Input
Amino acid sequence: MEKYKLSHSILTFIYDNPYNMGPVDLVARDVFGLEGFSPNVGIFGDAYLNFGLMGIIIFVVLLGSILVLFDSVAMKSPLILSMTIIIIPSMSLVNSGMFTSLATHGILFAIFVTWLSSTLLHRNEKVVGK
Output
């Protein structure tokens, strides 16, 4: 089975789509035998469809790096605040591909909001402490 190599999304200008359909449509057709059905493939399914087993490893390392970034941003904020900001967007990883979750399901935005709120809280603590 030929891999997508992100030809259905951000690398469409480099690689041709080998199936002339998106990976979700391919899974619906080949696994479930249905047309017009959209199963949730999640981060691991998306990684495998794009790059095989090596893709799973690469996507997990990339996701780990993003979580380390989030952790470093959330260090200065209260735990409950950072948890409530990231919990809903992180659920999209079960249902969508990683790049889709980062860009359109709010994970990058959650990291930004966490950074902004922790910066504002830290600055207010300095002002109150004077």
Summary: The mean pLDDT is 88. Residues 65-129 form one domain.
